[in-house]
Amino acid sequence: MKLSKPLLRSILCCAYFTLTACANSPKQSDAMNSFIDRMVADHHYNKTELDTLFQAVEIKNDIIKKISSPAESLPWYKYRKIFMTDARINGGVEFWQKYAQALAKAEQKYGVPPQIIIAILGVETLYGQKTGNYRVIDALSTLAFAYPPRSQFFLGELEKFLLLCKKEQISPLNPTGSYAGAMGMPQFMPSSFLTYATDFNNDNHTDIWHTPEDAIASIGNYLANHHWQPKQAIAVPIIAKNDRYKAKLSKGLKPDLRLAELESLDLTTLRPLPLDTEVKLLSFEQPQGTELWAGLNNFYVITRYNHSALYAMAVFQLSESILNKKGSFP
């Protein structure tokens, strides 16, 4: 039988959308089926229930595009403009005024000053205003099953997400977050939630989405467990007399030089520090050149929250601006 051209086009069109749907459908993924089997074997989940759950999951192509172009790829002077705004500074002061009691309590317990916790909330979600509109299970499934470069990491986070949903007795289809599956006001990944999230208002629920007190304590707990040093410096500007320092610029974020070594390279910190202080020499791109900083232990601790020197510097500088503004805020 010879098919008419309109009918043939119709059949081909239907076939195209069927193939596309299959390609984006988690039901067709061997990796997803293996994941379900592992959750059943390791954590005694009901296979039928997980099959039904993942039939409702959507693989989002735009997530792949977003994770391939993170903001941390920007030069410092452009990245900084995103976060050093009047809205974030004033919003941070207002947040401090509103939750002063919880912030003081968290500082007493964890040793982390209020302005650092507030700045992280400001950088992450504008104090809870922008927590992300993706269903967490969609984001994690997309990156676990459709993004090979990071699939192992996100398979682990997807596993932790299902475990936390069981622990907190919430439906896995309800929580929302970022395109990477980061959740709530502090943008915790599921593994961080299970390890560091804290019920600070003692209501028997750990709610980092809607309870600022829990978000505050969770950040404090996270930083304290990554060896925050109370009342210690974070980062100090450096002045260079020449370019000999370039030989000491290196990858990584952990302090790897003694301050005395910097001084031997004709580098001067703009704040006195003990000569045995361990620092990381950091260079930040500006339109007319670079600026140099000595990152100390607490700077490194902030990078444990997000493994980026740009991120940690944005948190640090926003925290300083919030602290300075607080004294003059009406």
How is the topology of this model organized?
Blueprint: H1 5-24, H2 30-43, H3 47-55, H4 61-67, H5 76-83, H6 86-98, H7 100-110, H8 114-125, E1 134-135, H9 136-145, H10 151-168, E2 176-177, H11 190-196, H12 212-225, E3 235-240, E4 257-258, H13 259-264, E5 267-269, E6 278-286, E7 289-295, H14 297-305, H15 309-326
Antiparallel strand pairs: 1-2, 3-5, 3-7, 4-6, 6-7
Distance between the termini: 82 Å
Percentage of residues assigned to helices: 40-55%
Q: Which spans have pLDDT < 50 for at least 5 consecutive residues?
A: 1-27
Count of distinct strands: 7
Quaternary structure classification: single chain
Approximately how much beta-strand content do the residues carry?
Answer: 5-15%
What summary fits the major beta sheet?
5 strands, antiparallel
Which series of helices and strands comes N to C?
HHHHHHHHEHHEHHEEHEEEHH
Helical element count? 15
Shape: globular
Counting helices, strands and paired strands, the structural category is: alpha+beta
Strand order of the largest sheet: 4-6-7-3-5
Round the mean pLDDT to the nearest integer and report it: 90
Cα gyration radius (Å): 24 Å
Question: How would you describe this protein?
Answer:
- The model is unreliable at 1-27 (pLDDT under 50).
- A hairpin with a 2-residue loop joins strand 6 and strand 7.
- The strands form 2 sheets. The chain has a 5-stranded antiparallel sheet with strand order 4-6-7-3-5.
- It is α+β, with helices and mostly antiparallel strands.
- It has 15 helices and 7 strands.
